[in-house]
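Hello,

Our lab assistant flagged a job as stuck in the queue for most of the afternoon. It eventually completed. Since we weren't sure the result was trustworthy after the delay, we are filing this so someone can double-check. Below is the sequence as submitted and the structure that was eventually returned. Let us know if re-running is recommended.
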Amino acid sequence: MWIAISALNLALAVMLGAFGAHGLKARANLEQLTWWQTATDYFFYHALGLLALTILSKVIPTLPIKTSFILIQIGILFFCGSLYIMALGLPRILGAITPIGGALMIAGWLVLAWNAAKHAN
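-- returned structure --
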């Protein structure tokens, strides 16, 4: 299941990146395009991170990744999703969700660091 979710994230990141580069360019201003690019960059980074987590869980099956995976996935939805929504011209108030998504992604990586440190002992 984790590999499938990671692969879907990566496919969506490619599709959304292509849409931003080709379909959005003609109707968005520079600020909106910047939001779109930031969302796409973070989507790719964290989707690749989720894939790495999945591989890591196969190499070290006793390392718990579920909490990290879920936090990062929800963080992607909140952070990238809110930027995509704003880039499409929807209410900027949704940008208030962006830092929550960032905090969830950070929390996911910190939980992984904590679990990895505990696992090493």
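-- support follow-up --
The delay was a queue issue, not a problem with the job. The result is valid. The chain has one domain: 2-11+30-120. The longest helix spans residues 30-59.
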